[in-house]
Amino acid sequence: QAFFCLLLCIPWGSSCPPSCQCTERAGAKAVLCSSRHLEEIPRDIPRDVVFLKLDANSITRIPSNAFRHLSHLEEIDLSGNAIEKIDGAAFKGVAAGLRTLDLSGNRIRSIPKEALLALNAKLRLANNPWHCGCALQEVLWEARLDLDSVQDITCHTAPREEYVGKPLLQVLDAGANFCSVRQRTMDVAMFVTMFGWFAMVIVYVVCYVRHNREDSCRHGERLRPLPGAQARAD
């Protein structure tokens, strides 16, 4: 009985991941997991954590609902990892309260815009091998980016060679619009599709008319009387 009473007295989420250090910062719980050779986000992070440092590890992916149970979370530092993939619902459950998200210094080439545009947090996205496309452009326009790091968002790859190696902000200021390129591509694809359907309809109509004409000719030949029968009738 005393054991169960002890369990009830222990607050949920008070444990600390074995590879991390849990401490207090300005009266709020901080979980420090920097440089711990982590390859994924720990699953046993305390529920009442406010500051979470996961920088300088070997994390490669942020899966959906990775922080959903951490409702008090305000700051996440994931800089200096090997992150290549971020799921669209990676920050579901913490979007409203998150104030700072650091994803700088990873291997991120692209990211689902829904993963970031729902956030109110200030984002740091610098020093990643970004592919400059419409999704990244929309993030730059609509998300809250850290102004000090915007210049370090550089085009590692781009639709045009002249943009490679240049800061995305500089490319956009020069008049580039990656979203209009995608729109033109979609328009061309739509035109090709419609032309294909139109060509199929034309071919079908031509074949249908030709088939009916051949049937009419064969039917007329069957109705035409034979020469011998016509002579006997005379």
TrEMBL record:
Membrane-spanning intervals of the chain: 188-209
Keyword presence, Electron transport: no
UniProt subcellular location: Membrane
Keywords: Leucine-rich repeat, Membrane, Repeat, Signal, Transmembrane, Transmembrane helix
Keyword Cytoplasm appears in the UniProt entry: no
Any single Gene Ontology cellular-component annotation: plasma membrane
UniProt cross-references to InterPro entries, sorted A to Z: Leu-rich_rpt, Leu-rich_rpt_typical-subtyp, LRR_dom_sf, LRR_TM_domain-containing, LRRNT
Membrane topology (UniProt): Single-pass membrane protein
Signal sequence extent: 1-22
Pfam family, one: LRR_8
All residue ranges annotated as the LRRNT domain in the record: 15-51
Xref: PROSITE patterns: LRR (PS51450)
Main localization of the protein described in the UniProt heading: membrane
Similarity remark: Belongs to the LRRC3 family.
UniProt protein name: Leucine-rich repeat-containing protein 3
Organism: Phainopepla nitens
Recorded name of the encoding gene: Lrrc3
